[in-house]
Amino acid sequence: MGLLLYGSPSIEISFDDRALQHLQIVITAKLRRRESFVFSWNDSADIGSGRSSIWLDPSSTLYYRYFGSRVPAINREWIDVLMESANSGSGLFFLPEPGTAGHPAPTQRPRA
Question: Does 58 score more than 90 pLDDT?
Fold first, then answer.
């Protein structure tokens, strides 16, 4: 399980390492082009379900923390689906990997 830490003080958002790697590729591509956007996901039941969103822009403080030591194989189709979402008017929405039953919903908590 990996972590995306956002802001200062940071919010921890947990994704599995494979999902986080794909999100990092998409988020980095958008921010390199100096594009701002909303990133949204459905929350896991252990934090009350619902949906969360953050605003990302080139000045955002982001930290990606992976718990596995190996870089996962990249699914180009998944990158394309996430990038299409990121380029939409509603922004990037975390979607499960195409052809899978999906990943567990991310969890988040404020960090002190």
Answer: yes
Phi, psi of 42 (to 5 degrees): -85, 135
pLDDT class for 106, splitting at 50, 70, 90? Answer: low
Tally DSSP H helices, then E strands, for the chain: 2, 7
Tell me how far the alpha carbon of residue 45 is from its chain's centroid.
Answer: 18
Beta bridge partners of 41: 52
Distance (Å, whole) CA 63 – CA 32: 15
β strands within the chain, DSSP E: 2-6, 11-15, 37-42, 51-56, 62-65, 92-93, 107-110
H or E segment to which residue 20 belongs:
helix 17-32
> Phi, psi (5° rounding) for residue 93?
-120, 130
CA–CA distance from 72 to each of 17, 85, 99 (Å)? 8, 22, 17
pTM attached to this predicted model? 0.83
